[in-house]
Amino acid sequence: MPVFLVGAGLFIIAFVIHVVVWKVRRPHHQAASLVLLFLFVGLAGFGGIWLLKASGGSALSILRAALAILLYLSCCMFYFLLFSAVDSDSPTLTLIGIIRKRGLLGISREQLSQEMAKYSFVRPRLTQMINDGFLVQVGDRLHAGRRGRILATLVLSYRRLLGDREAGG
Amino acid sequence: MEPQILSDALLLAAPAIGTVANIAFQFTLYRMTRSTLMISIMAGLGAGCAVTAAFVALALFLSPPTIVDGCALALSVFVIYGAAGMTYFSLINLGETSLRIRMLQLLLDSPNGLTLPEILAIYDDKKLIATRLRRMAENRRAILIDGVVYPRRSVLFAASWVLELLKRLLYGRDPIFVSCRKGNDRVSRVKMTSRPNGTSIPAPNDPGRAAGGKQQ
After folding, report:
1. Could you tell me the pTM of the whole model?
2. Measured in whole angstroms, how far is the alpha carbon of residue B184 from the centre of its chain?
3. Which of 110-139 (B) contact A at CB < 8 A?
4. Which of A83, A117, A126 sits opposite B201 (nearest CB)?
5. Which residue has better confidence, A123 or B26?
6. For a surface tag, which of B44, B86, B134, B214 has the fewest beta carbons within 10 Å of its beta carbon?
7. Structural domains counted in chain A
C-alpha cells in the first residue's frame, strides 16, 4: 500500500500544483514547463522520503521505493501523453469530439466536413514545429531542423523495421 | 535471497519483462502474419499483460501480503506496464497518424525544402480530414450509416471526453479545440513573437503578412 500511496499521492500533488499554476498564469512553453514541474515535485517528494528513511521514519525498502518512483514516473508519462493532445489539437480527436457532441442523432459527412472547415490544422502545426525547433525557415522555404530529423529518423526507422515505408499523416 | 527481497525484485522486473514481451509479440505478429497494425498492437499489449500478471502472481506467492497490500502492489505494477505500453503505442502511432511526422517526411524527401503553398498543395486540411475520416471508418471508431456518422464507444471517444474535461479544468472555456479554430492565432501569435528573426508563416488574410510577416 505505501508504494501506491507514495507514487499516486505525489502525482496528485504535482497535478494540483500544475492546475493552479496554469489557472494563475499559463507558461509560454507549456510542455517544457510541465515536465520541469513534475520533475521538481518528484525530486522533492522522493528526496523527503529518502530523508525520512535516513532518520528511520519510513517503512519503504529500496526496492519498494524504486517501484514507487517508477509508478510516479509512469503516471507522469500517461499525463504527458494526454497533455500533448491538449497542447496541440489532434485532428482525429477534434473529429471525434464533434461526433460525440452530436450523440445518438449522428452527423452527416457534409455537416462534419463543414464543422471541420472551421478549424485549421496544418498551418498552426507548422508554426508550432518552427517554434519548437523541429523545422527551420530559410527565406520562404521550410527545412527539417535537427530535432525534427532526430524525431523523424527514430519514428520512421522503426516504421521501416515494422515493414511500412510511408508516414500515414 | 530472502523471499521478501525476491518478491520485490520480481515486482520491479514484472513491467519491464512484460513490456519486452509486448514489443516482441507485436513486432513478430505484424512482421510474420497479415494482421493489421491495430490488432498486432492489441495482441502485443495482451501478451505483455499476461506475462506481467504471471510475474506479479509469482511475487505475491513468494511473499504473501495482505489483500489490500497485494491489490495496491498489483495495481502499481499494471499502471507502470500500462504507461510503458502506451509509450510504445505512441511511438508506433506517431508513424501512422502524426501530422508532424508526415510534414517532416515531406521535408526530408525535399532536399531544397518546401514553401508553405507547396506543402499545402501536397497535404492540406481537406486531405488531412478525409484521411482521418477514412481511417476512423476503417478502424470502426465511428459508425457510418447512409452517410451519417454516429459515435461508437471506444478508447478514443473516452480520450476525447477526458481531454474535454482537462481543457475545461486548465483553460476554463469552451474546450472544443479552440487553438485550431480559424481566425484564432493563439499559437502563432504567442510563439512567433518569441522567434529570434521574427519571421512566420503568414496566413493569406493575416494582417502581419502586409507588414513583412512580423506579428505583434
Report:
1. 0.76
2. 25
3. 112-116, 119-120, 123-125, 128-129, 131-133, 135-136
4. A126
5. B26
6. B134
7. 2
